[in-house]
Write a structure and sequence with these properties.
This protein is mainly α. It is built from three helices and no strands.
Length: 64
């Protein structure tokens, strides 16, 4: 049983349904992370475990 990336890539190129499944899975993971991040930030701010100023500063460092 070959578990290498090159074998997986070859299988994905040969089977369009596998490619579709992988792309849909990656899309779901992206959207899930995209929507979970603001909820985590809002929870920290609302519970006052982190100040808004500190949160904005941390996000600024993260994106810049």
């Amino acid at each position: 049983m070959d578990l290498s990336f090159s074998h997986f890539w070859g299988q994905m190129m040969d089977n369009p349904l596998l490619m579709l499944a992988v792309l849909l899975t990656l899309g779901v993971i992206l959207v899930n992370g995209w929507t979970d991040a603001p909820n985590a930030i809002a929870t920290c701010v609302v519970t006052r475990s982190m100040s808004v100023r500190r949160m904005v500063r941390n996000l600024w460092v993260l994106f810049c």
